[in-house]
User: Fold this.
Amino acid sequence: MPLTPSSLASPEETSEQDYLWTLNFGPQHPATHTTLRIVLKLDGERVVDAVPDIGYLHSGFEKIGEHLDYNQYVTVTDRMNYISPMANNVAWHHAVETLCGIELTPRGKYIRVIISELARISDHLLSTGAMGLDTGAFTFFLYAFYQREVIYDIFETLCGARFTNSYTRVGGSMYDMTPLVIEKIRTFVKTFPATVDDMERLLNRNRIFVDRMKDVGLLTKAEALSFSASGPVARASGVPCDLRKDEPYLAYADFDFNVCCATAGDCFARYYVRMAEIRESLKIVQQAIENLPSGPANIGVDERTALPTKQQVYQTIEGTITHFELTMANRGFTVPHEEVYAAVEAPNGELGFYLAGDGSDVAYRARCRPPSYIHFGIFPHLIRGHTLSDVVAVLGSLNIIAAELDR
Amino acid sequence: MPCSPEILDALKQHCGEMPVSEFRGQTRVIAPQAKLFEVLAFLKQEQGFDFLCDITCVDYLNYRGATDRFGLAYMLVRHEEWERLIVRCMLNEPDLTVPSATPLFEGANWLEREVWDMFGIPFEGHPDLRRILMPEEFTAHPLRKDYPLQGRGERHNFPVLRRGQA
Assistant:
């Protein structure tokens, strides 16, 4: 049975009123950015209730995870959150490496830190930019999108793809960083802060923007915890959780950065936290690129997980065997007969994978804990009592990515 | 990091003996089906595990060495002093019903709906247990291991809605 107004789960006293209007917001609406559908119940312009309806993409990525091996699946993670695919790549292979008990090389760790922070900047730029666009700040959006292009250029130089990067591999990454990439990142770190200043000057005290964002979509600290919110959404409500500090993975313990928090818990606080996080990420990238350790980017041949270099393949018997084994179907490396949950701080919040390994090179179960899915569940709570035009502001501040909502 | 032994001791005192295992620094407790809600409530109210990170399920149909069909996993976090604990619950047919965790964590609402949709595990006391990702007409639970990757042709059997009937 399709979702109809009669199946709206709302309090008795409101659902009985016959003057309420039902409005289908989406699945295709310019302000939803992707295929999201929200069934709104309106009293005039006021939202009485909202029922998010998801499941329009049918990507089936958890089922596919049970049929692709650990290196092939990275291409699927690109499509989960196409705004920051690099962070998803890192999250997936972080989980696989936790399952296998692999410790990366220092350079490999730094490379992953750099790319996940660049992904965070790019994600926050899009999310705040779209937030501005939806509330009428078009110039801000153009500023944000131009800088995203610069980050895409860096990714293209790094791995050959702008959008669906698929950069990481078990035990390391596809390619090491070349001097050209390092130079481009250095230039970006130098030129970008001026744009952030401009962006903040455009919006932070902008009357229209502030009026549309302040006191809209309030989420208190207790509610944020109860609703399992994470990432900028939780931090804007005063939950000082950040996996980079709480359980430092990769090389995050080496860097000096702050966890950005706000206490208001409204849309403006979420915008503000994201802008502050861009600066902190920039700090991390700067420290990481200056202290980038030398040495191999991938772990060695003896671990038998990462592909050996061409030189090793042609000149050593170990390299030849490892290369052969890893590229053969149904050979690959073996993983323990165990289960593990590993999470990273993705731009939107905690992105975790629950992996059940059965000894073969294919995951027995690959569960993804996507932050957008959890945040979209909070949406009805945030929007009740606000007006129709606030739907856009709240949606933008939660940064819902439709591909993450699907399974 | 592994869960501190005091919490596990307190849990044992309060809810009885439970199998505890550890792998890569992650502590897992297997709660019996009848005591699942009690364990979750105790951990939240007495031990400060106030953040329910995730609920998921694994279908152990053809998993080597598995004795139970389904295994639920509740990822709990204590956010004050960062600590994780995974509460497992093993389920077998025909009785798959477990109590809903929604009275404790509001975030459990959608997570449980997803587990119901994908695995067919009913949560007793859930306020709104409908399918969330699959259409209402769908009868199977796609993430079960006995469900084929390419589906069973459900799409061809869906009723066609014309503009007049919609």
Q: What stands out?
A: Chain A touches chain B through 49 residues (CB under 8 Å). Residues 1-10 of chain A have pLDDT under 50 and may be disordered. Chain A has two domains: 61-101+103-298+344-406, 301-335. Residues 106-134 of chain A form the longest helix (29 residues).
